[in-house]
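User: My instructor asked us to take a sequence, write out its structure as tokens, and then describe one feature of it. I'm not sure where to start. Here is the sequence I was given:
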Amino acid sequence: MNIHIHDTKLESGKAAATEAAQHIREAISRRGEAFIILATGASQFEMLSHLVTCDLDWSKVTAFHLDEYIGLPSCHPASFRKYLKERFADRLPRLRQFHYVNGDAPDPAAECARLGELIQRHPICLACIGIGENGHLAFNDPPADFQTEQPYLIVNLDEACRRQQVGEGWFASLAEVPRQAISMSIRQILKSEHIVCTVPDARKAEAVRQTVEGPVTPWLPASILQQHPACALYLDRASAALLHEH
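Assistant: Let's start with the prediction itself. The structure tokens for your sequence are:
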């Protein structure tokens, strides 16, 4: 795991986007196209804001969506489809395609199957992700399933995850946060050729410490990133504050 620590989350986000753009550029050069995965949440604001300004041939880029709440319409302020449409897809009119997770599909299991069939057709050159306060990757809360080969899963959200969504201002109360989501699986994320993980803010510091310095365990899902051959972790001073070796 390559760790990059910057003074501010703005600097960290810009640096993460610069690396992400380079991986996309290289994939287009090698294969003529690039398939990427994008995350949402407050941790990705600065990274995405800079990524959409990078000089890339977006007509050769197809994006996949990490996760979405079950039962939440795309017009809801907390919808990840809404987030990615406004912050990414709408700002890139030449983008080839974005495969959204339809959280309010009538049959969530069928939606998982649809997305799984799509993503298995393509080699993912890059996953741009974050880490939750509880150490989750996508919506794989602890204890995460490290074994399943299914690309997308129906998952239950734990209380710590749901409280984070309230704390970030996406919902007014815990009762409003859905209890289930469709999430990309751990093994599918790890199939990405490169991972750029952007994790700013002091509230993530303990999860970052355990991700980098703790054992690999389903009880801290992001710890599995230690085993990826090309993972870059972008931190600010606040999120890196508890690390002992950096």
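For the description part of your assignment, you could build on this observation: The longest strand covers residues 194-199. Try explaining in your own words what that tells you about the chain.
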